[in-house]
Amino acid sequence: MNLSDLLKSLPFYKLSNASNPEILSVENDHRQVQEGSLFICIKGYTFDGHTVAQEAVNRGARAVLAEQPVEVEGAPVITVADTKRAMAVLADVYYGSPTAGMQLVGITGTNGKTTTSHLLAEIYKEAGEKTGLIGTMYMKIGEEVLHTKNTTPESLTLQKTFKKMRDEGVSAAVMEVSSHALVEGRVWGCDYDVAVFTNLTQDHLDYHHTMEEYRRAKGLLFAQLGNVYSTDRPKFAVLNADEEASDFYKKETAAHIVTYGIDKEAMFRATDVQLTSDGTTFLLTYPEGERKVKTKLAGKFNVYNVLAALTAACASGVDVETAIRALERIDGVAGRFELVTNDQGITVIVDYAHTPDSLVNVLKTVQPLTSGRVFALVGCGGDRDRTKRPLMAQAACEYATNPVFTSDNPRSEDPAAILRDMEAGVAGKSYKVILDRKEAIFHAIREAEVGDAVIIAGKGHETYQIIGDKILDFDDREVAKAALSSRKKEAN
């Protein structure tokens, strides 16, 4: 595509060193620039792409997009008011508006995004669709797994990924949409058909500062569903009727509203919920009737995830029976209430719970599944919302018999200081502090007796631990298995 054709999508810009080269790629990382690239200068938190504009040209960039003056020789410079906004437009045009040709579902909320997205992807597979998935754990195109750094990549990476999905025959894509991504415009250009809201509890206040701003950020997904109606491609907002924030989001969107829930009236509602050690059953009431559903997923919070996925699927045209068939065969999602099997009579569960509400949900779910004590290993990430640290400790002390505070991903912070922040919320309570996470896991599993449960919370599927500037191999599941093996040897 020639530069002039690409720039037709931008209404206002200034062009200097005018020429019309062929653009062979679009990059915002100067290290990825190759011969024929358009290089987009982005101001980041720690790095400003404007400072390497000439280096990008030296590497082969045939044009530079900037939002401030740059000294560049050998290539035209396009100056716009906002390079992030322009990047979203150019990415959509360059890759041929790939999301316009597929079913696209965006899922936002504090907890449940990963599980809901995986459940929905399985439903689409059951319906005969080739699926794409973008989220916290990875990106998937069909069965191919691609690693990603952020829950929601920036707009250029997203559109490039959607182009690859379209080229490989993906007809339905599901993605987690973080509040950061919505505020920063990473999903501009994504043509969503369905937007799903799971829940809203405290998280990321280091970034959003207030719950009102956090709520508003999530609402951007629903506002971006559009303002027109099409019988060929209707838009749906799928909202949790039991969440107060849903009333706010109803006002944010012009899309058709579809609700799901348990406690309040909803279009898709679960009643007579029965929680057992081997899964959950409930009566599904939906616009066409009623149906018993049995899922292998445990806990009330997973009933919400199941309902969210089922409702989104039905809104996008999948029949209820197909959706239920898929949901009833799914064992679970890695790192989400994942059981570490053993023959020692103790229940060991690894879960990604890293907010107070999600931790409470997990601990409430495990209580009826065990006849003994509940050990809860809890930590908090460094360089993240400090206000939730005492709340995490409070949740552990209230809902577990044996709380153990330990390191999560301390990043640049002093791990001991993070734990002191947690302890500030539970003065006078009974708990144990073990700074080293491996030692903490070994301690809990060694101390557990037959009938007890050990919940290892916070990292879930992660296979690393970030300490300082180092990323170290660490998988809670593998450490738990080693601890179980050690416990067995000691017993013998």
Write a brief structural summary.
This protein has 16 helices and 24 strands. The protein is α/β, with parallel strands linked by helices and 492 residues long.
What secondary-structure arrangement, pairings included, does this model have?
Layout: H1 3-7, E1 14-16, E2 25-27, E3 37-40, H2 53-59, E4 63-66, E5 77-79, H3 83-94, E6 103-108, H4 113-126, E7 131-134, E8 139-141, E9 144-146, H5 155-167, E10 172-176, H6 179-183, E11 194-197, H7 205-208, H8 211-223, E12 236-240, H9 245-252, E13 256-261, E14 268-276, E15 279-286, E16 289-295, H10 300-315, H11 320-329, E17 338-339, E18 347-351, H12 356-366, E19 374-378, H13 389-399, E20 402-405, H14 415-423, E21 432-433, H15 437-447, E22 453-457, E23 464-467, E24 470-473, H16 476-491
Parallel strand pairs: 2-3, 3-4, 4-5, 6-10, 6-11, 7-10, 11-12, 12-13, 13-14, 18-22, 19-20, 19-22, 20-21
Antiparallel strand pairs: 1-5, 7-8, 8-9, 14-15, 15-16, 17-18, 23-24
What descriptive keywords fit this protein?
492 residues, alpha/beta, eleven-stranded mixed beta sheet, six-stranded mixed beta sheet, 34% helix, globular
